[in-house]
Amino acid sequence: GVSSIEFIPTILEFSFNYVFNEGTNMIFEGNVVQFTNFAIHCINLMKRILSNNAYSFSGKITTSTDISQATKAKMDFFTPERINYICEKIITHYFLLTQSELDAWDEDPESYASDEGGDSWKYELKPCTETFFVTLFNQFREHVIPEVVRYVQKAQVTTLTEDSDLKDILLKDAIYNAAGLGAYNLFGEVDFDQWFTSQLLDELKIKNNNFRIIRKRVIWLIGQLTGVKFAQSLRPQVYAACLELLKPEEDISIRLTASKTLMSTMDDFEFNPEAFLEFLEPSFFLLFSLLKEARECETKMNVLNIMSFIVDKMSNNIYTQMNNLIEYLPLLWEESVDHNMLRCAIISTLLQIVKALCDIPAKLAPFLYPVISISTNLKDPSHVYLMEEGLELWLSVIENSSTMTPELMQLCDNVLPIIELSSENLRTVLYIIQSYLLLSPQIYLERHGTNVVNVCASLLSDMRPEGICMIMKLFEAFLCAKPEFAIELLKPVLPDVFKNIIENKEYSLVMTMYLSIMARVLLINQGVFSEILQTIQQPQALANILDIWITKLPLVAQTDKKKLLSLALTSLITAQNDAIFERFGYIILKICETLNDIMKDDDDTGILTDSLVFSETMDFDNNSEMWPLATNVEFEYKTHHYERCRQLAMEDPVHKIALKDYLQCQIIALKNQIGNERYQNLMMSIDPSVLSNLTDFIDIGVTIQATS
C-alpha cells in the first residue's frame, strides 16, 4: 500500500491554501469563518504533521527511511518565508477576538472565563490555532522568535487611550496573546521587567468598556511572564495589580483571570512570604467575594483551590488570617450542600489550615468535628465523595490536638464500620486508631480496645501480607502504649500469633511482626507468655518457637526489631528451662550478633555504646527504625503527635534498655541461680570464638581456653 508519508506535501499544501492562503476566500465570509470545522481539521492536520516524528496516519509502524522522508517533506514545506506568512496570518487574523466571542463574554462572563483549557483545541477554532502556533514556535524557534518580537515591539510603541479604536485594541490583544503563548522562547529577546513597568501596568488602569479586553489579556500575559522570568522585587506590584482587578466592580471574567495570575505568580520556588503579607487579608476577602458570586461549581472550586494554595504558601504567616478564613469556610460549606467536589476542596483547605497551625483553633473546632463526622459516616450518602479527604483531615486533627475532647471521642464510632466495609482506606484508618491510642491510651483502649481487636482479628484471615503487617504494627503499638492492659485485650489473638510462628510458613516481614508481638508479650509478662504456650497445646511449643526464633533472628532487617528479639531472648536466660539450656550456645551467639550490629563508638567519648538507646534531648528524623509505631508522618511539622510518639519511643525497652547491660545482669543472675560449677560448665559448652566475642561486651567470669 501507499505510505501516508507520500501525502504529507499534499496535505500541507491543501491545508495551508484554505486556512492561510488564496483559498481563504472559500471558507471566510467577511472576516468570519463559515466552515469552522473544516478549518479546525486542516489546522490540526498541520499541527499533527509538525509535532509527529512517527508519521503514521494508518497506525502502521514507520521505518527510519519513512521518518527522514517525512522530515524532509516538512522542512521543504515550512520555509522561512512561509513561516513568517503563517505567523502574520495567525496573529493579525485568527487571534483577533470575533464579535461572537465578545457577545459570549457579554452574555455569560463567568463561563467565558472558564472555557479555556482541556481538549477545546479539538473542536474550537481559537484554542486550535493557539496550540498550532505553540507547536510551530517550538519547532522553528529561530524563525518565529524574530517575527513575534517584531510584533511585540510594534505593540510597545503603540499607546492606547480611552478613545482608541476597537480595531487597535483587538490587534494589541492578539499580539499579547502570541507573546504570552511564546513567553518561554522570548525571555532572551524581550525585557519582561521593563515591559511590565513601562507599559503593561498602565494599560491595566484604563477603564472604558472595550478596554476590558486589554485588562483581561494583560493580567493573563503577566501570569505567563512571571512563570518564566520576572524580578522578585516587582512581584508585589503584580500582587497589587491582581487585587485591583479582583474587586467586585470588575468584570467577573477578568477577576477569574486575575485570581489565576495571582496563584501562578506566587507559585515560584523563590517565593517570599514576607513580601506577600500585606496582601494576605485583602486577597482572602476578594477571593471569597468572588467565590460567593460564582455560579458554577467548577469556578467555585478553582477559586477555593487558589485560597487553599495561599494557605499552604503562607503557612507560617497564616495565623493572622485564620479568623477570616475560619469565618468564611462554614458559610461556604452550607452553600455547597449540592456540590460534593467543592466540599472536598473545603476539607482539603481545612487540612492545610490545621497543618499550618499545628493546633486546633477554638473557633474552628465546632465546625471541624461535624465536617469529619459527615464525611466519614457510612450512613451519610456524601461519604462516597468525601471519605478520603475526610479521613486525612481527621488524622491531622488528632495529631494536632493536645487533649482528647468529647467530640473527638464521639467520632470514634465512625472508625470500625469503614474498615469492615472495605480494605480501601485500611492504612489511614489504622493510623487514626493509633493516633487516638497515643492521644489518650487508657480512655481509648477501655472504650474501644475490645472492638478494635475483634474487628482487626476478623480481617486477618483474608489479608495479604502487607495488611497483616499493618494490623500487627497496630497491636504492637497497643503493647507499647499500655503494656499490661493491652496484653489482656490481645489475649484472644495471641494464640494464633504463636501458632503462626511455629508453623513457620509466613513471608519474612510478617514473621518479623509475629516474633515482635511475641517478644513484647514476653518482656511485659512472662506469666502470660507461658499461659499462651499452654493454650496452644503443642508438645515442645517453647523448643519449636526457640528454634525458629534463633533461625530467623539473623534475617531480620530492622535493627530495632533485632534488638527487641534479642532483649526477649536475654530475658529467657534465667527461665530455668531445659529447652533454653540445650540451646544456650545458640542463644548467646544470636545475642552477640545483635550486639555487634548495634554497638557503635560514641562520637564524643569513643566508648562502645548501644546506638538504639535514646537520650532525652534526641530529635527523631523520618527514619522508620526509630519508631515502635507504624507511621505515615513526615515529621516536617512538630505536631503534638510527634511529641507523643517521641515520649512513647523513650519508654520503649528497645530505646531505654542497653542490651549489653541487661545481658550482664541476666548472666550474673543465672550464675547465682545455678551455682558456679554448673555455670562454668554451661559457659564452656559455648564455642570459644563466641565466648571471646561476648567478653568484648560483658564480664563473664570465665577463663577462655586459647583456641589452638
From TrEMBL:
Any one GO cellular component localisation term in the record: nuclear envelope
Chain segments annotated as transmembrane: none
The entry's keywords: Receptor
GO BP field: protein import into nucleus
Pfam families assigned to the protein according to its UniProt record, in alphabetical order: TPR_IPO11
Start and end residues of each Importin-7/11-like TPR repeats domain: 344-697
Coiled-coil features, chain-numbered ranges: none
Chaperone found in the keyword field: no
InterPro entries for the chain: ARM-like (IPR011989), ARM-type_fold (IPR016024), TPR_IPO7/11-like (IPR058669)
Name recorded for this polypeptide: Putative nuclear transport receptor kap120 importin beta superfamily
Source organism of this protein record: Nyssomyia neivai
Lineage of the organism: Eukaryota, Metazoa, Ecdysozoa, Arthropoda, Hexapoda
